Amino acid sequence: VPRALGCADHSPKKKLILHMDLNNTILVSDTVTGQGTVAALDYFLTTVTWGKMSKHGKWEWLSDSASLLPPCSDASSYYSQFGRSPGFTSVAGRRFKGLLEEHLELLRWPEGVKEDRQLSVKGEDGRLYHWILPSFFQLIRDLAWEGREFAIVFRTFGTDLPRVLKAVSRAVNEGAHPLFPDLPELKLRVDMTPGKIRCTKRGVVLSRAEERVSTRDGERGLYQYLSSVQGLSGFQDHFDWWATNTFSIRGGKPLWIDPFDQNVQHVFIDDNIRQNDEDTIVSPKVFLEPGGHDTRTAGTAELYDISLVQTDLLRAISDRSYFTQRVHICLKNY
């Protein structure tokens, strides 16, 4: 990405806080379900391939290509119709086998580079793959080159946070990534202590080591805390709360947004962000007045590609500037 790309059309003065999911956003594996690279990508394809049930109760494909959004209003994803389907591309989704193989090939760890215990992973097929998508490291490099002040906050329901922070630290501080050996020049700090975000009917509590911030003192405190973070850090969000709220916007990962704040923009990138508030993973809380403490829950559609980005995992694998492009779209639309 040319250095001038970000400077011409959006002021680099605004600080950017990027909240990023891990599984199926920057990682192609899932500790929650125990899936390796091949199974995780195979599963992802069930969520982006579309068809419908015929009058005779038979599944009919409506498209031969994968897409985040349905090709027509009455289409259902294979996953929403049939749930998890191990070996999808070998059975019902055979027509998408080529897509799986093409993207696995793009994920391959560079030939002739020895495996790295933190940054590479052995797939179920015995081949070496990138554990963290190169497009993530490209994003960090691009934002730094643009002269933009930014911080990355990993937000996951899973348990990979310590491992991810360790791997990212090796790449960012030690220059251990074969494709991005120059990252240490950016002088980014990685906070290795994972935090926790816990939600109840009474509110939200964020804690990390000795730090603790709660919405009991109003929601502004959490917004200020997350707006002031530096470098790269991470929090484990509250899966049980999302499940209790039937996987809807009401129980999603909280994201505070202040439309009156000219100095900070928060963006959340997650593959489970969907324009269906009964089936989405982020709960955006938008402040009602300048400096105020009260928020409203905004619908996903209102903030889509402004503060919320639904990861297109296939594009994040195939296009190294994918995340940078999505962030630029949000900056432009804000």
From TrEMBL:
This is Si:dkey-32e6.3. It comes from Poecilia formosa.
